[in-house]
Structure to design on (684 residues):
């Protein structure tokens, strides 16, 4: 029978299926970070259990780590509770081991969803889990990747399996060619705008179509990263030359004969031509404009040349109240042109958009210009040590610094405000991250999600600008 | 895990859609390495007027009188009535930990985010999906009758008013139900299949050595 990519990945990891369909799924790669793992290791210890296959674990500290003052080392972390959590990860890895650990201050440390792919620790055909919802990122490589809770982190440590149920299949096709200034970020925001934040609930989404094929691996990771914001635990993209070229020579990718054999198999990781999907939608790539979120949910999104919507036009009362609450939280008036929205801060970073291509796109906009006087802070936070080093080799850091941006050490930074980087109440930020929830970037913070080029252009102008017109 | 079979409790209505896990338990509390201590910080940003941080004495903080859980009539509630896409956002298991520690054993909504839904079962909290119209009806009842309670029968998969005037069936996976009814730990159950896992692993390693590299 014809199978979808998801069907193939699912079937190839089935260890056991109960009568009601509950399955034991084998996990190849387990990514671990400091926030969702301490209680899992503790649980293991209390139960007297050993990790099943510790060399499946790739670990790093990213959420709590500061992006400044690395020369001060661990004592540089002012927040003692955060420091204890980072030290707890250090000691858990010391006790139990790992395939590889990139601790705080390590040259290869970075955001967990950046380091997996960049080290070739994420490979096609794998199952990849992490105690973090944006694990969907890794699906860009034609693998089955999804976020799990802390109990499941413990479960995978102890059994190398997850108790899971098969999701339904959805395919989102983006056909055609995107216009200038339109990136993977705009594509995924447009998809979320179309299907809503629960449109993908219960599904694994495969992203397909010529506009997806045309994306680099970085762009594909951006798209899959935000599959979870559309409600889908897993997003994925079929393997092709782009995937294989990206992986070749990465530290944990196979080499020699092993590589050749792996590639033969990886090339089978795509949906069969006549595979059936439970749900399928198609977007016209040419119609996608650069996107800006206006509210407190990623589905509250409009094109940059649009206006903030008017709740009075919404018939559904729960939705209308949600819109009104969002507008009041965001301090915005209905029908305001998006390009009239002025910003206080700009954040370029996060597991959505902190890879080399993202930084290049932002630097291209910034080059030779200065950030607007009204911008209090503009941050560029590379996704990992290697991304930072690469950017510095290309001189991107100098472009950013000359323009008035701060060039920081890698980490989650202002994406979630668990570290020293956060917004003050009611500050408005153009951010390349993935969530604009209430309080996400700090108490009463106001977040507008955009692509790196859009964020960079907003930093220069002090308000949103349509990058498809200026370039 | 504490088992859940029959439960009767006061219902508190949270009338907003897309309540995300950061609203349920804000990120600053995630720095803790413990499994407990989250109950007083449940819905922190809505529940208190000041900014909460771990290590504070929450009993001394100023309450937001307008927030539903701070209203006298909902004190001691153990069933949370919610709107669609409840628990979206971050995968943090601290969300069900906080709900449970506060005293909620059950959340009713028209839909839940997938990860949150699964996390609830692992911690003895039952997420119940009812139809939109049924949830609407419960919101009405809850507003109309102070002290509105519901009785939950997991075995029969029903939730009903005490007088039985309203009674709704709901779906739940057989396996999850079994674990919750018996308070069983998943890991122990999975390890019954240890031989199968080992055999699968050996076969996979032979075919796909790169997946073990
Ligand atoms: S960058 Fe943001 S979304 Fe990504 S893992 Fe870190 S906190 Fe989560």
């Amino acid at each position: 029978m014809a199978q979808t990519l998801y069907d193939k990945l699912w079937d190839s990891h089935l260890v056991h299926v109960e009568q009601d369909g509950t399955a034991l799924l084998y996990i190849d790669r387990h990514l671990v970070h400091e926030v969702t793992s301490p209680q899992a290791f503790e649980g293991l210890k209390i139960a007297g259990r050993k990790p099943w296959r510790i060399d499946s674990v790739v670990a790093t500290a990213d959420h709590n780590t500061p992006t400044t003052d690395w020369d001060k080392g661990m004592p540089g972390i002012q927040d003692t509770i955060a420091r204890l959590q980072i030290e707890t990860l250090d000691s858990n890895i010391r006790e139990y081991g790992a395939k590889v650990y990139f601790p705080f201050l390590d040259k290869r440390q970075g955001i967990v969803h950046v380091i997996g792919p960049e080290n070739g620790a994420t490979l096609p055909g794998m199952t990849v889990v992490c105690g973090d919802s944006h694990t969907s990122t890794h699906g860009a490589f034609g693998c089955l990747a999804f976020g799990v809770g802390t109990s499941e982190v413990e479960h995978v440590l102890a059994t190398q399996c997850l108790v899971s149920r098969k999701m339904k299949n959805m395919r989102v096709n983006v056909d055609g060619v995107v216009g200038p200034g339109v990136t993977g970020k705009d594509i995924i925001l447009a998809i979320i705008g179309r299907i809503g934040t629960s449109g993908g609930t219960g599904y694994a989404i495969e992203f397909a179509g010529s506009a997806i094929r045309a994306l680099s691996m970085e762009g594909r990771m951006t798209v899959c990263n935000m599959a979870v914001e559309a409600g889908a635990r897993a997003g994925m993209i079929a393997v092709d030359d782009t995937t294989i070229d990206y992986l070749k020579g990465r530290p944990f990718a196979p080499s020699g004969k092993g590589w050749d054999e792996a590639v033969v198999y990886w090339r089978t990781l795509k949906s069969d031509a006549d595979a059936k999907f439970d749900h399928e939608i198609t977007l016209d790539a040419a119609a996608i404009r650069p996107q800006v979120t206006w509210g407190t949910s990623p589905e509250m999104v409009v094109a940059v040349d649009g206006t903030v919507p008017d709740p009075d036009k919404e018939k559904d009362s729960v939705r209308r109240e949600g819109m009104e609450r969002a507008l009041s939280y965001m301090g915005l008036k209905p029908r305001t042109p998006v390009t009239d929205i002025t910003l206080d801060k700009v954040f370029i970073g996060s597991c959505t958009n902190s890879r080399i291509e993202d930084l290049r796109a932002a630097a291209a906009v910034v080059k030779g210009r200065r950030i607007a006087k009204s911008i209090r802070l503009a941050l560029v936070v590379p996704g990992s040590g290697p991304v930072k080093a690469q950017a510095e080799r290309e001189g991107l850091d100098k472009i950013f610094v000359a323009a008035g941006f701060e060039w920081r050490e890698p980490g989650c930074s202002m994406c979630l405000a668990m570290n020293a980087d956060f917004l003050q109440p009611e500050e408005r930020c153009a951010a390349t991250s993935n969530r604009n929830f209430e309080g996400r970037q700090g108490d009463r913070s106001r977040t507008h999600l955009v692509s790196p080029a859009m964020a960079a252009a907003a930093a220069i102008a002090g308000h949103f600008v349509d990058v498809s017109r200026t370039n | 895990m504490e088992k859940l079979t029959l439960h009767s409790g006061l219902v508190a209505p949270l009338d907003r859609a897309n309540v995300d896990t950061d609203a349920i338990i804000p990120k600053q509390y995630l720095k803790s390495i413990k499994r407990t201590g989250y109950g007083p910080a449940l819905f922190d940003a809505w529940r208190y007027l000041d900014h909460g941080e771990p290590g504070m004495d929450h009993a001394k903080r100023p309450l937001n009188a307008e927030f539903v859980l701070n209203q006298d009539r909902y004190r001691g509630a153990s069933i949370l009535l919610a709107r669609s896409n409840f628990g979206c956002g971050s995968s943090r298991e601290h969300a069900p930990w906080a709900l449970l520690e506060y005293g909620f054993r059950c959340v009713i909504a028209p839909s839940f985010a997938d990860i949150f839904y699964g996390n609830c079962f692992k911690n003895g909290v039952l997420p119940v999906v009812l139809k939109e119209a049924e949830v609407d009806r419960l919101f009405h009842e809850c507003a109309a009758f102070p002290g509105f309670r519901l009785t939950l029968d997991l075995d029969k998969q029903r939730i009903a008013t005490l007088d039985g005037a309203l009674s709704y069936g709901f779906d739940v996976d057989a396996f999850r139900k079994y674990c919750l009814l018996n308070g069983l730990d998943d890991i122990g159950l999975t390890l019954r299949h240890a031989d199968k896992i080992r055999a699968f692993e050996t076969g996979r390693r032979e075919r796909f050595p790169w997946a073990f590299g």
